[in-house]
Amino acid sequence: MGLPEKIETRLFINGEFVESSNGKTFDIINPATLELVAKVHEASEQDTDNAGSYMKKLASLIRENNDELAALEASSMGRPVGEFIDAHASAAKWDRHAEAGYSVQGTTGVQTPGFVNMTFRQPYGVVAGIIPWNVPLLFLANKLAPALIVGNTVVLKSSEKAPLTSAKIATLVQQAGFPPGVIIIITGFGNVSGSILSHHMDVRALSFTGSSRTGRLIQAAAAKSNLKQVFLELGGKSPAVVFEDADLEKAVCMANSRIYVTGGGAPSGREGYYIKPTIFKDTPEDAKIMKEEIFGPVVNINVFKSEDEVLAKANATEYGLYASVYTKDIDRAMRFAKGLEAGTVGVNCTSPVTGADMPFGGYKSSGSGREGEPLYSLDNFLETKSVLIKIS
After folding, report:
1. Which 8-state DSSP code applies to residue 360?
2. Which molecular function GO terms apply here (predicted)?
């Protein structure tokens, strides 16, 4: 049996054969004859360390394209360019997750007589993400980065209201060199593409950010199909509680309970969707505007007399995403941090303030699962397998 006329000596990366990035090769010598059999391409550090390096490269490209991404969001969803910090925040998420893959570890146990046991943490395979319109770059990073670094392939559906930045990210994914098929980004409406992903038998886990109504539909679709794991970051209606000892100037500014605007509402002579700022005072606790989330410049201001009263009112909602308490009394602050039924509690701060080293997610109808901090977000895209090894 002779050797083939041509021996393949290149590296196989991204579904194709390529030479090493630094051009180096090493010799393969027949030990019986000492003859040179082939010169094989030597994988460089860049060739080898691709999983994290793709994500690092993408983070760099996102930063480089900040201005274009800002313009795309301004044109598709009306967000002022001056308020756009999402590219750098998104890039930081990609960087953090690129370094987090090695933190995934199993456990071992020797408490069962005659056995050595262990757990494996393994990717689902194919997972999906569905993101909203309001901060698409951040939500895209929250879905893609943790899923990819632990070994999944991802189908991501962007919002039909703001798809342009996601489409731009797709071009940067290509520039970064991700293998074909590892990331799929689609644009469509929820009742078609979102429904298909939710029902799809090959999708083993799905992460969604959006309304509680849609989250319930996705969970129902998962139950009717393959019982895929579903992680939800949904609506919120949590309050900002301001006590008499708070720094009122800072509290009312951050909590948006006092609003100053230029007279006239919408700029004169301009087209567009403008909603005048609206303040409701002493709103009945059972009113719809006190119970349901409003995406707009609308605020309810009510008063309270005691801690017990306001804590009960604060928790009298089906939502629990982000609550705040303003006080200089640290004991009171900690009592409310424990007592407020919300996934995040801000003390002397409020949304959208978050911590890069903290998970984010909701209580009750505000969702399930946590995103943001890799220690928590990686869990959304990993299955745990128990392995029992009999040794006697």
Report:
1. B
2. aldehyde dehydrogenase (NAD+) activity
Select from 71, 66, 103 the least CA-distant residue to 85. Answer: 66
pLDDT the model gives residue 9: 80
Please tell me the distance from the alpha carbon of residue 81 to that of residue 206, in angstroms, as a whole number. Answer: 31
Strands 205-209 and 229-233: parallel
Query: What are the structure tokens assigned to 292, written together?
Result: 């349901």
Q: Tell me, letter by letter, the H, E, C secondary structure of 252-280.
A: HHHHCCCCCCCCCCCCCCCCCCCCCCEEE
CB 17 within 8 A of CB 7: no
- Which residues, given as ranges, of the chain have pLDDT below 50? 256-264
- Residues 233, 293, 341, 373: which is the catalytic one? 233
- Residue 45 has what pLDDT? 60
CA angle 221, 210, 75 (to 5 degrees): 130
What number of other Cβ atoms are within 10 A of residue 340's Cβ? Answer: 23
* Structure confidence at residue 353 (pLDDT): 85
- Residue 383 annotated to the active site: no
pLDDT of residue 270: 65
Cα distances (Å, whole numbers) of residue 139 to 12, 27, 144, 271, 332: 32, 48, 9, 29, 33
Q: Where are the beta strands (DSSP E) in the chain?
A: 11-13, 16-18, 25-29, 36-41, 108-109, 115-123, 126-130, 153-158, 183-187, 205-209, 229-233, 240-242, 278-281, 298-301, 319-320, 322-326, 344-347, 363-364, 367-368, 382-390
The structural domains of the chain, ordered by start, are: 11-48 (no CATH), 107-234+369-389 (3.40.605.10), 240-263+274-365 (3.40.309.10)
